Fold this protein.
Amino acid sequence: MIHIVTGKIDSGKSTTIADLYQRNQAGDGFVSIKRMHYHKVHGYDIMRLSTLETRLLVVRDEFKHRDYQIACKIGPYLFLQDALAYVETTIRTLIADGVTPIYLDEIGQLELYDQCFHKVFAELVDSGVECYITVRHDLVPDIIDKYKLKVYDIIEV
């Protein structure tokens, strides 16, 4: 079963899956944490739910101050290769170890273009493991269609 947590931008999707993890006290995965610089998004960290370990996942191009290896880009946001590789490796290990449910924040436009978490999310779908994902409300039909999701529910926030 795939649980799709959905809503508009800044509606609390990430907070919702973090809360679900805390209530369930089972599984593992990742949630994104927004980094702000005054009133502007600076970037996003990815946090592993079981360990609270964080890594920089996304940096806004105007705040890029190092030579990061960039995996993909959407708008002004640069996704860092090492953080994506860490998430992919960890999720593959969770699947292999039978951990359930697995949480992944967020599946969106980049995945529709076969980038970012596309490969590992496709593996999650193929594995049949229970998972919670976040998807912006307007992208839900496209994600369902692209990944041919058959067994899912939608949690509106």
Q: What stands out?
A: Helices lie at 13-24, 81-96, 109-112, 118-127, 140-146.
